[in-house]
Design a protein that fits this description.
It is a single chain. By secondary structure, the protein is an alpha/beta fold. The protein has 2 domains: about 1-65 and about 185-210, 3-Layer(aba) Sandwich (Rossmann fold); about 65-185 and about 220-245, 3-Layer(aba) Sandwich (Rossmann fold). It contains 11 helices and 10 strands. The protein has helices at about 1-10, 20-25, 70-80, 95-110, 120-135, 145-150, 150-160, 170-175, 185-200, 225-230, 235-240; strands spanning about 15, 35, 55-60, 85-90, 115-120, 140, 165-170, 180-185, 220, 245. It has a 7-stranded mixed β-sheet with strand order 5-4-6-7-8-9-10, sandwiched between helices. A 3-stranded parallel β-sheet has the order 1-2-3, sandwiched between helices. The longest helix has 16 residues, at about 185-200. About 40% of the residues are buried.
């Protein structure tokens, strides 16, 4: 798809996920590219730095993976008696190892056991939830991954079917029945790349547009899902929620 865009000599390429950003970067060094990614864009060699991206690429770094520790803290606040924590990850995602490492450190600090479960296909998601249910895990942390986001209805349905309290990286999971999320705003990120694309079309260069990093992180709770799981959300947690879905 990126090769086709390059052949058409489009004015700007908007890349809405890490695979798209990497493919676009590999396909052209001249057409401006504006990305939304959750992994670290410098380490992935998309840009030279946040303030001066250099080259033809800039965009939004969602800062998703570093929030894994906070998600663990929040799900333990909702389910304080949880001892065994499962983390569902996509082993093909570039930031998986870093995110698991950070959550593992937080689990050890909270004297909890963390198990990682892999899934990188639709069928493997079903298998992963069945394995998590068989292991009688108390709670689940879903890692940040664009493939998981496309399967959010499947995640919410499986968590409800197996009775697993889960926390997700984006509001979109909770909007379709997931229990709880903590992370950056995807809608806000896409607005930002639209704004950058507009500035580039007016003559600005990607090299001069700093990579945007969000400063606001939202916690969303679905009370209907909590009730179905037999969970009572503590008033202190409800008071801190940015959005409560009833």
């Amino acid at each position: 798809m990126t090769d086709e865009l390059v052949r058409r000599r489009v004015a700007v390429i908007a890349a809405g996920a890490p695979p798209a950003a990497l493919a676009a970067k590999a396909a052209t060094s001249t057409i401006p590219i504006v990305f939304v990614v959750g992994f670290y864009p410098i380490e992935a060699k998309l840009v030279d730095s946040y303030n001066r991206p250099g080259g033809n690429v800039t965009g939004v770094h969602l800062i998703t993976s570093p929030l894994g520790q906070k998600r663990l803290e929040l799900i333990l606040e909702l389910v304080p008696n949880a001892r065994t924590i499962n983390m569902l990850v996509n082993p093909t995602f570039p930031d998986t190892e870093i995110e698991v490492r950070d959550v593992q450190a937080a689990a050890i600090a909270n004297r909890r056991q963390l198990r990682s479960v892999n899934a990188s296909t639709v069928a493997e998601i079903d298998e992963a939830f069945a394995a998590i249910a068989d292991q009688h895990a108390d709670v689940l942390i879903v890692a940040s991954d664009p493939f998981f986001l496309t399967r959010r209805e499947q995640f919410a349905a499986l968590a409800a079917r197996h009775g697993i309290p889960a926390i997700y990286p984006f509001r979109e999971f909770v909007a379709v029945g997931g229990l709880m999320s903590y992370g950056t705003s995807l809608a806000g990120a896409y607005r930002e790349i639209g704004r950058y694309a507009g500035r580039i079309l007016k003559g600005e260069k990607p090299a001069d547009l700093p990579v945007i990093q969000p400063t606001i992180f939202d916690m969303v709770i679905n009370l209907k899902s909590a009730k179905a799981l037999g969970l009572e959300v503590p008033p202190t947690l409800l008071a801190r929620a940015d959005e409560v879905i009833e």
